[in-house]
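Consider the following assembly input.
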Amino acid sequence: MNMRGFIRILSAERLKLSRSFIWLLVSISPLVALPVGALADIRQDGEPVSWQVLLNVMSMMHALLFLPVLTGLFAALICRAEHSDGGWKMLLSLPVTRTAVYVAKFTIIMALLACVQLVFFIVLLSIGLYRGAEGAVPWPLLISSLLGGWFACLPLAALQLGVSQGWSSFGAPLALNVSLTLPNILVVNSATYGPYYPWVQPLLAMSPFGGESFGAFVLPAQTLMLVVSVSLIVFLGGGLLYFQRKAV
Amino acid sequence: MKSTVITTNGLRKVYRGRAAVEQLDLNIGQGEIYGFLGPNGAGKTTTIRMLLGLIQPTSGDIQIFGKELRKHKLQILRRVGSLVESPSYYGHLSAADNLEAIRRILDVPKARIAEVLDIVSLTGEEKRPVKGFSLGMKQRLGIAAALLGSPELLILDEPTNGLDPSGIQEIRSLIKRLPAEYGITVLVSSHLLSEIEQMADTVGIIRQGTMIYQDTIAHLQEQAAGELRLTVSEPEAALKLSSLSGCGGSLQESRIVLPRMSDARVALLVRELVENGHAVYRVEEHRQSLEQFFLQVIEGGIS
């Protein structure tokens, strides 16, 4: 894969997203988390809220449902135009390698997810500062939580990109994704399956439950990183192999 | 001799045990408009997809610009522009932005966008979102996109499909200009003979995945050209005249049918008939339309 070719495809892919409603999706989850963070844990005694509690309550819905669902939605959206009216034919008959196209599409999903995390971070930071959360801003905690959540989404992104490019239907990959995301509510409480279920990893990575040990939350970070990395390699490699052999 | 741009050798593509393309030998010369003709489902699009590297041939090889497609795919595709099936766009983007997305991949100067918009007469419409375009405009934009990289070879799959007559006319005159003005070789497919007849220099007719005719349009027209029919008072006796039977005349429904011949020959024949006491009632030229000839070719064997 030639780097200049890749950068050119990436720049074309970015242009395709301009003026797209995809950017509205980026801010949905942080906006939902905003009132949650604003109203959570208001104490009668006037004690300030802690950063950790804020992060926990706000990332609950965000990482449990929104991040996995958005990942699938982004993957489906960036393949949609290619599926209609011979778009793959047009794109792949240009002087591009399939690997470069696939990796560029994946990079776009990664970037969109990073934007989601960034907006979430800004909202979280604003609420914490506005409510005068206890102590100084715990940068390492917040940053590792947000980066971890982002990283844990990448295997899902790889799988959803694989499915979205393979199926010409727009709805089917989304339905698959949602039906695999909903069990999160149960799986997260399971110490047996939680650690290995890719859809629940974003929450495990984001929530600093630390001491409170229930379900899969007691997982050491190394296990989590290993599970995420291995599933990322498997899903990305599988999707790429399929895409290279695909008849267009 | 003109150099060849596309050569395929025993090209074959099998889908689930059924051959979509079988033993196809294409031969397309530099600077010509090659009409790739065949009924729907004959294997035209499958062939074109193989030429663009979108699918792998089951066997056989493809050479474009004298290079093996399998080995030099990117180098070759850099010099090829294509429009396969209906063009695809990002509807929310303007025509110029759609071209810009492709321009970024091809890495050609920005000025090229205005140039190709001008070639397809879309100048002035480039700021509008493509979703508001008519089918004809979208098709022209597709050709603009195909021209963006200043290709030496343009591959157009059914470019006039679904267009109204004026749209067809526009695309046709556009395609006819390309070799003369820009030196581009064009491969254009269609299921309509009249289309190809009006654009192409050379025609390749494909039926059930097999090439059954490949020659110049002029030669095709010659082969399709009709016969001479003579109605005379005593046809059987007339046919016995040496000159008539000598040029392959035959009797059909009490008329003498002869292959097409020059005006001088016709005059000579008529005089001979008259001099031998025959009354000549009618001398007709019956032209089989190219369409009929095409159907005949498609339905079975070359005539």
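Residues 181 and 199 of chain A are 6 Å apart (CA to CA). Ask yourself how this observation constrains the way the partners meet.
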